[in-house]
Design a protein that fits this description.
By secondary structure, the chain is α/β, with parallel strands linked by helices. 25% of the residues lie in helices and 27% in strands. It is globular, with a radius of gyration of 19 Å.
Length: 256
């Protein structure tokens, strides 16, 4: 039976990262693409509940979802385009920029993978770390990395239980493919909101990009995703959807 892969992203259906992902998976499976019609970076795990959504065909088994989010794309594709059997894998990316540490909670790229595992489909989110002062690269290492992972999954099994997905980040300007299993690090955030005024004097803000600064968690074994990237390794982090703070439950009981 032919393997089936559903692809989405949060950078939009024309993103070079999406095209690179399609190229990387050529010959491994039948591919269906459903991606947002416009960029939806940092939209998180949001669904559109206040207006209708429409698939617009842009090629063979390639659709853009009119103003939909990544979660919309995966949810609707799985329930509308895969009625008889679900795909073998959902892959989201290749994102232009990293999704590490707490950025995972903002990420539309990660959210598409979250939606996949919520619907019972093994899922991967893959992101290319970028130096945004330089032109966008060719995604060569990211393409190699995702092909290796998908070949391994399709020839065997997915390495995680239900409601967990693989969050993959690929270092910038590195040629050698080396994987590291990591945990999600702690990222530092700052106020990067820029105030401007339009010609009529009305104030508005642009939210900027934070530098990739992080804190090591010494209580954890191994490398964080940030540390792996610093060492030129492809970071693979297993992410679970259960966000319960189990270590704090007894403390909370005592507080009550």
């Amino acid at each position: 039976m032919v393997k089936e892969i559903l692809i989405s992203n949060d950078d939009g259906y024309e993103s070079p990262g999406l095209i690179a992902l399609i190229e990387a998976l050529e010959g491994l499976a039948h591919i269906t693409v459903v991606a947002p019609s416009t960029e939806k970076s940092a939209c998180g795990h949001s669904l559109t509940l206040t207006r209708p959504l429409s698939f617009i065909s842009v090629g063979d088994d390639f659709y853009k979802l009119d103003d939909g989010t990544p979660s919309d794309c995966v949810y609707l594709a799985l329930h509308s385009l895969f009625e008889e059997r679900k795909p073998d894998l959902v892959i989201s990316g290749i994102n232009k920029g990293s999704n590490m540490g707490e950025d995972i909670t903002y990420s539309g790229t990660a959210a598409a993978a979250m939606e996949g595992v919520l619907q019972g489909v093994p899922s991967i989110a893959i992101s290319q770390v970028m130096d945004f002062t330089q032109p966008i690269g060719d995604f060569t290492l990211a393409k190699k990395a995702i092909r290796v992972l998908v070949e391994k999954i399709l020839s065997g099994n997915f390495p995680l239980p239900e409601r967990e997905f693989l969050n993959v980040n690929v270092p910038y300007d590195v040629n050698n493919l080396e994987f590291a299993v990591t945990y999600a690090g702690y990222r530092f955030y700052a106020n990067d909101a820029h105030l401007h005024r339009n010609p009529r004097g009305m104030e508005y803000y642009w939210l900027g990009l934070h530098p990739l600064e992080f804190k090591t968690r010494r209580e954890s074994d191994g490398l964080s995703d940030f540390e792996a990237i610093e060492q030129g390794k492809v970071s693979i982090t297993p992410i679970q959807l259960d966000m319960s703070a189990y270590k704090s439950m007894q403390q909370l009981r005592e507080w009550l």
